[in-house]
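Hi there,

I know you've been waiting on this one. I reran it after we fixed the sequence typo, so this is the corrected version. Both the input and the resulting structure follow.
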Amino acid sequence: MLWETSICLRMVKFAPVLTKNVKFVLIMPKKQLKSENSSGTALQEMESLSPGGDLQAYINSVHSIGILTSEEEKKLAEDLYYRNDLDAARKLVLAHLRFVIYIAKTYSGYGLPEADLIQEGNVGLMKAIRKFNPEMGVRLVSFAVHWVKAEIHEYVLKNWKIVKIATTKAQRKLFFNLRSKKKGIGWLTEEEIELMAKDLGVKPSEVREMEKRLGGTDMSFDPLADSDDEEASFAPSQYLEDHDADPADIFEKENLDEINTSQLYEAINSLDDRSRDIIQDRWLADEKLTLHELADKYDISAERVRQIEKNAMKKVKQAFSSGE
């Protein structure tokens, strides 16, 4: 039956030839509202409070904003949660921007722009405020820390290197803890790897792999635009060979595909109408039919359809053999 499988694979292969910045959107809570009327206004544009411009001016502006007392924070949170007051949301955001700056500074060791880290943290802060329930009995800052760090973590992982360095939960945990837990600048010893793996709840092999990734460097495949001839010669594109790019091999493969397509087309056209239709419906159609569906279509048994298909495949195989 190997020849049947080969013919089927060819027909499937050549079937096409034969057939032709985040918006701060607040959702009204499901709890009973105290008032049907909302006294809030849309969040104001705050171009002067954008870390993307003058970062130090932004930091100074943020630190000039007063800190909310526990009572003031609870009142604003209730206005937002129960009455969808966006002006209360704006005040909560402004009062906690200094908190985001403090967290973002702890990630300065990754070599990414501090302004971008603050921007991502602000996104996390707005998400936290949208989710915050004043009845939980905790301060907003305690609730928001997870959301702020989550947004910054995602940004660091996506931008620290060209290739994403951590995808699994264990890899993400190692990425943010490995360097701080290393006692020196050298490679980890087996004892240190075992101890770190146990401490973080991961496999030793995952610790070794992450250490390799953190120790590696990115390299551009093509030479940089401003590199001289000597520097360009070290780019991978100058010495890595693509064994599948031989023009002779490409031409031979395309020519063989064209011949196979032509032979298969002629072999199928040599069949009678019913056999050809069954082969097309079973192998070449986008929505292939089963034996029982074809049996109902031609008012014959499923076994008879199978026999017609088998005989048609033999004829196609013979046509291929005679053409080679």
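Quick highlight: Residues 254 and 261 are 11 Å apart (CA to CA).

Best,
R. S.
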